[in-house]
Structures are given as structure tokens and as C-alpha cells.
Amino acid sequence: MKPYCMISNAKTFAFSAENPTGARAGGSKGGDCTKLSPTVAIRAGETVTLVDTDGPGMIQSIWFTGYVGHSFVIRMYWDNCEYPSVEAPISAFFGTAYDENFVDRDGKYAVLNSAQILVAPGRGLNCYWEMPFKKHCRITMENRGEKDQSLYYIITGCHCEVPDEIGYFHASYRQEHPVQKGRSYTIIDGIQGKGQFVGVTLATGMNGNNTCWVEGEARMYIDDDKYPSIHYTGTEDYFCGSYGFGNDVQIKSYQTYSGLYSGMYAIYGDNRAFYNGQQRFLLYRFHIADPIHFETGFRMTLDNMGWTGPRYDDYTSCAYWYQTLPSAPLKPLPSDKEMIMK
Fold first, then answer.
1. Are 70 and 91 in contact (CB under 8 A)?
2. What is the DSSP string of 174-205?
3. What is the distance between the alpha carbons of residues 167 and 338, in angstroms, rounded to a whole number?
4. Nearest-CA neighbor of 153 among 165, 164, 140, 166?
5. 116 neighbors 199 (Cβ within 8 angstroms)
6. To which H or E segment does residue 18 belong?
7. Which residue, 167, 126, 128, 171, is CA-closest to 320?
8. How many degrees, rounded to 5, is the angle at CA 39 between CA 13 and CA 65?
9. How large a percentage of the chain has pLDDT more than 90?
10. What is the greatest pairwise CA distance in the chain?
11. What is the bridge-based pairing of β-strands 86-89 and 168-176?
12. Is a pLDDT exceeding 70 seen at residue 242?
């Protein structure tokens, strides 16, 4: 039986601008057809708390819109840990790191339509990763930009019993603009603890002639592996595609796709010349059906290669995993200006 059809003692909560404490009956007192507090203003340099609640419980869904660029950094703290288990600009966290690009190659809003993340037209950012906690949950948003911005949000979950063996949700941001030529790009490293890797979102920006940028191989190192235990044959293969996402075969053009657990869902830039367009690509792969289990640690790398050898493209990613606490501190973020992606 699925949880939604089983009667339980769980108590639903929802934090929003209209109910910032998430309390029962804590929403707007304005009555029908009123908007008293639809959004929260976050001043430049300010951090606001979106969720602060005791456990046990679970975050079940997150929705954001308004300003959804890289200057907003989301952080999540589990069970009163002093440093976050999640730290990423919200654009990359939701798989849309090219946040200054709204219209894709085909003149449409790009739609990421997966089981874990939905990016809906107009930049409605949705997340359905389950995030259990035992003692406490705190979620914050920092505005690292130079302008005041507004955020619309609702974060739902429930207070409920959680098993002792739960893993805590983690997410970490990485970028190289550009990738060091001849060296693999690090999706994630530094993980310490027991758990499972569950996915990554990736944004790539081509520099120079394309030369089949997807020749790079994905490698996963479990625990103390000297050599990878999981080794894919190419970038498009890891993201469940093939033959240059269609550019190598009949149509001779990249084709977007968005499935439950994987996709190359957006292309920015309208140059369709065979392998020569300096385009931008948005990809994701979620290991829900096939989580990668580790006992003490995990590391993943991805080559940046074309037919002519190593490349120097811009790579940006956010990795997702569950693990025991305490976890190692996440790698510090680049500065806000270093994150700008055109």
C-alpha cells in the first residue's frame, strides 16, 4: 500500500508567506478573496527562515517562484546541526542553473517534468524529494545579491514517526567556468558517512566549436575505490540518452526529452549547425530506481570531452544524496558574482 491511501497519525503542516509559522489555523485572517501576505521580501544581504519546526517529521514538497535566480541560496539544517546539509543557489538546486535564460531554443519556456523536480512554465520551481528528520528542521533563504527581491513559497510536510534507519537529505553545488582542460569535472566529493547517492542536475555551456561535447565519461567511486566501480561510456549515456542526444543519427539535431528520472530538457541558443553551436544544455539524472549505495563515502566525476579530446566548457551541477549524520561540511560556495551564467 502507498502511504497516501493509508490512515495514519501524521499531522500535516505548511509554511508559506501567508502562514510563516506553519501553525494549524495560522494562515491569513483576511477571509475570502484577499491577499494579505502573498510573498516575502528578502533584502540584499539578508537571510530569512522559511521553516523552523521540531521533529520527528518529514518535508514532502517545496514550491518557489518570484525571484528564482542564483543570488538566492537555500540551506537546510537537520536535527540542530550547526552547518547545513543542503546549500545551493535555488536555480541550480531545481535544475535550471541558466536562470537568466527564460526562453529556450524553440521559443518556449523550458519544462523539467520529472518525479523529483518540476520546473513549470514561468519558472514555477517544485521539489518532491522526501526529507525526513528526527529532532528538528530549519530551512533558510539568503539573498546574496545587490538588490532586494521577493519570494513566493509554500513548503509542506508532516509531523510523524520516522524509522531509526532514515537517511538525511543532502545537496551540494559545484561549478567550473570553464572546466580545466584535461581534468575531469567533480560532481561531488568529500562525502563521509553511510548512505546512497540519488542524482544530479547539470548545466553545460559550450565554449568554442562543439566537437561532440558528450564524449566525456561518468565515473563513480564507492567508499575507498582507487578506480571507479561504476563507469559509464559517455555523458549522454549517463543521462539515459544516446548518440549525441540525437545529433549523431537521423535528424542531425539535438532533441530535448524529460522523463521521470532523467532528461536533457532544455537547450538555450538557436544555432542548429551540426556540432558547431555554442549552446547551453540542462540535464538531470535521478537514481530513484537504482540508488548508489555506499558505506563510508562517495565520489563522482564527469569528463568534459569531444571528438578532438578534452574541452574547456562551463559546467555547473547540484548533487543529491541521503546519508547518516553527522555529515562532513559541504564545500563552500563561490561568490555570487562568480556564479553568473550567460
1. yes
2. EEESSPPTTS-EEEE----SSEEEEEEEEEEE
3. 32
4. 140
5. yes
6. none
7. 171
8. 85
9. 81
10. 65
11. parallel
12. yes
pTM, two decimals, is 0.96
Instruction: Round to whole Å and give the CA distance between 55 and 325.
Output: 15
- pLDDT per residue as tens digits for the range 160-209: 999 999 999 999 999 999 999 999 999 999 999 999 999 999 999 999 88
Question: In a 10 Å sphere around its CB, with 0-12 CB exposed, 13-18 middle and 19+ buried, how is residue 24 labelled?
Answer: exposed
Measuring CA to CA, which residue among 302, 258, 311 is closest to residue 104?
Answer: 258
DSSP-derived secondary structure for 241-285: --TGGGTTSSS-S---EE-SSEEEEEEE----STTT---EEEEEE
> For residue 273, what is its C-alpha cell?
549547425
For the chain, state the CA radius of gyration: 20
pLDDT digits (tens, 9 = 90+) for 285-300: 999 999 999 999 999 9
Q: Cell numbers 547545513 label which residue?
A: 84
**CA 95 – CA 186 distance, rounded (Å):** 17
- Is 210 a residue whose pLDDT tops 60? yes
Q: Is the dihedral of CA 302, 306, 310, 315 positive or negative?
A: negative
Domains of the chain in start order, with CATH, are: 10-23+39-339 (2.60.120.1390)
Q: What is the pLDDT of residue 275?
A: 58
Q: Provide CB contacts within 8 A for 132, sequence distance 6+.
A: 56, 57, 58, 162, 166, 167, 168, 169
C-alpha cell at 142: 539568503
Statement: residue 211 has pLDDT above 90: no
